[in-house]
Amino acid sequence: MEKFKKIIGIAAPFTRINVDTDLIIPAENLKTISKQGLGKNLFSYIRFNKDGSENKEFILNQPCYKNSEILVTGKNFGCGSSREHAVWALKDFGIKCLIGSEFADIFYNNCFKNGVLPIVLDTKEIEKIIKIIFSLETSELEIDLKSQFIKTKENEIINFDILPYLKKNLLEGIDDISKTLEKKKLIDEYEINIKKKYPWLGKKNG
């Protein structure tokens, strides 16, 4: 997993509440186990019309937000099923950070496992940010994970909280697999000792 670096990028306001993982990435796109290529189907139910053309009303289809790296979300974003593909699709599309007042628990944790930063702020701060980024001239935000702040184009600083170990994982690019591999030597030693102590384990009968 790549290390999370400071972001200076366009933020898109997507204030719909209770956005579930099926809306983020429809079930018919879950056949793959690859993290690449899912971005083209992100929000496809509402991003495209029935004839396959772009829905011009959808926020990420509007010219000023097409290259957004930050998504400011409505309450309870990422609810529904626990599919990790939802985060894969967001990241593959180019979204590196989510800012909202509430995220579904499993979705929130899946973000950290895949190098996406979910920032939780209170409702008033979310409303303040949305009001700012609705203007093309001020739609850019700076996200500094190391110093834990968001900076708007109006030079307003908004601090955010994050658990230290989750922050460390993102800054160092560590996921669950990386954590396990760090203990490989201890795991190997344990397996050798177990085989010596209980030599019959693992042997097939007969």
Verbal overview:
With 206 residues, the protein is an alpha/beta fold. It has a single domain, classed as Alpha-Beta Barrel (Aconitase, domain 4), CATH 3.20.19.10. The protein is 33% helix and 16% strand. The protein has 8 helices and 7 strands; from the N terminus they run E-H-H-E-H-E-H-E-H-E-E-E-H-H-H. The N and C termini lie far apart (45 Å). The model has no long low-confidence stretch (mean pLDDT 90).
Radius of gyration: 21 Å
Structural class: alpha/beta
Mean pLDDT: 90
The percentage of residues in β strands lies in: 15-25%
Layout of strands and helices, then pairs:
Layout: E1 7-14, H1 21-24, H2 44-47, E2 70-73, H3 85-93, E3 97-100, H4 105-113, E4 117-120, H5 123-133, E5 140-144, E6 149-152, E7 157-159, H6 164-172, H7 176-182, H8 184-197
Parallel strand pairs: 1-2, 2-3, 3-4
Antiparallel strand pairs: 1-5, 5-6, 6-7
